[in-house]
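SEQUENCE-TO-STRUCTURE ENTRY
===========================
What this section holds: a protein sequence and its matching fold, both as plain text.
Tokens: labelled as protein backbone structure tokens, with as many entries as the chain has residues.
Question of interest: how does this chain fold, as expressed in backbone structure tokens?
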Amino acid sequence: MTSQRLLLLALAWAALAVSIAGSEPVKAAGVAAIAALALARDPSLLAQLARSPVLLPGALALALAGAFALEPAVAVVGSVARAQGVLVGLAALLLAATAAGLSAQARRQVYRGVGMLGGVIAAYALAQRLGLDPVDWHGRPDERPMATLGNANVLAGWLLFRAVAMLVIGL
């Protein structure tokens, strides 16, 4: 599997994987598994991460946060509800190192994929807004659209991310 397909798979999994019982752990586990696959495919990602003036400080901050956490087990994997611990942070850094190694053409393919994925998410959010959501989301605090992202604010950030990607490639 190519690097750009792994990145698109990670983005799609993070955006679309849902579980009525709680999506964050499902999303985090999937992204971490894809990052592990990227690392297995290209072990030089660790060296690339260590040489990066942007990614290395992030890795060091994650390591320090985990080492000095009041609850180290929670710091490593994250809380039950969020699952956003050190391992997911490292997975994100590995995926960022993967993205940094892409050619300009491969990057444009990822941007196009993000655009299409954002279109799917936006269409679902619009369906929710129109009252056409086929899923009964338990514990939903309000009626604002959230698509598969679990939160209206996260949806807004995702759509903004998509808009920037589309501007970059001129669509």
